[in-house]
Amino acid sequence: MPLTATDFHFPGQSGVYHGKVRDVYSLDGDLLLLVATDRISAFDVILPEGIPYKGQVLNQIANYFLDATAEAVPNWKLAEVDPMATIGKRCEGFRVEMIIRGYLAGSAWREYASGVREICGVKLPEGLRENEKLPEPIITPTTKAEAGHDENISREEIIAQGIVSKEDYEVMENYTRKLFEIGTRMAAEKGLILVDTKYEFGKLADKVMLIDEIHTPDSSRYFYADTYPELFAAGKPQRQLSKEFVRQWLMENGFMGRPGEKVPEMTPEVCKSISDRYIELYEHLTGEKFVPAPDADPAKRIETAVLDFIANN
């Protein structure tokens, strides 16, 4: 049974934030518990059905990459206490998402195709095609909205508006490029292309830290490397492992999150096919067989694991 909502009350708990996909609990000792639920969102809308095992896939992929990049970029993680839950250090999050793109795809392509030649202050050359590799990776930040749509914003605007200081932004930019480089290399080793992704950062004391998920199918787009050249040359859609296939399915059924639009019916078959794609990405990215966690009562399982962590730390 997919876990689409949580309502925990831990000793010393001081607050909870329910995001589009994750529930974040503030615990004693400046700790955060991040629960990756089975909710799924697209076009900044939470869809009505949960996706089996999606939370576990997201949490375990994120932890796989947090561990792999920890020496290069400091991050918030302390322990994976459950397949769907991680505990880490509470940081003061920046209200910006750092999106980095190695290829022209997704929303950036849709803007480019409409005639836009500058995204987030970054100028793009004429004559690019959908899914084309960019001359070099570009950073296209967005503001992190409390509700509704995130908005594109330039580096200059972020600094001028005081959203992030120039010094901190430069660190975030450096970390973003470093993480993308590592993620690109790790994807290539598994026969994948890391097309684009997003990172979020926060501050702990005076140190900029990577927070939240990293290189998951919710935050990243991957193409299969073996078929990329042939499909690109033919102008055909790429085989990809990302959430873009969910967005495509919604668009084909008349939904883009605009007022008055209705989410198409998410049948058990549709939900299972989405779940299968998430599991496929997990196995492809990590090289490990996916082992489903017992799902009789995931909320109880998580609660027990967190109480155990609190008692022993």
Strand content: 25-35%
- Order of SSEs: EEEEEHEEEHEEEEHHEEEHEHHH
Helix content: 25-40%
Structural class: alpha+beta
Largest sheet: 7 strands, antiparallel
Number of helices: 8
Number of DSSP strand runs: 16
Shape: globular
Would you tell me the overall average pLDDT?
A: 94
Question: CA-to-CA gap between the ends?
Answer: 31 Å
The whole-angstrom Rg is 19 Å
Q: Name the poorly predicted regions.
A: none
List keywords for this structure.
313 residues, 16 strands, 5-stranded antiparallel sheet, 7-stranded antiparallel sheet
Structure description:
It is a single chain. By secondary structure, the protein is an alpha+beta fold. Helices cover about 35% and strands about 25% of the residues. Helix 1 (about 55-70) packs parallel to helix 7.
Give the structure's gist in a few sentences.
By secondary structure, this protein is α+β, with helices and mostly antiparallel strands. It contains eight helices and 16 strands.
SSE blueprint and pairings:
Elements: E1 15-18, E2 22-27, E3 31-36, E4 41-42, E5 45-46, H1 54-69, E6 77-82, E7 85-89, E8 92-103, H2 106-113, E9 118-119, E10 122-123, E11 133-139, E12 142-143, H3 155-160, H4 166-189, E13 192-204, E14 207-211, E15 220-224, H5 228-234, E16 240-242, H6 244-252, H7 268-286, H8 298-312
Antiparallel strand pairs: 1-2, 2-3, 3-7, 4-5, 6-7, 8-11, 8-12, 8-13, 9-10, 13-14, 13-15, 15-16
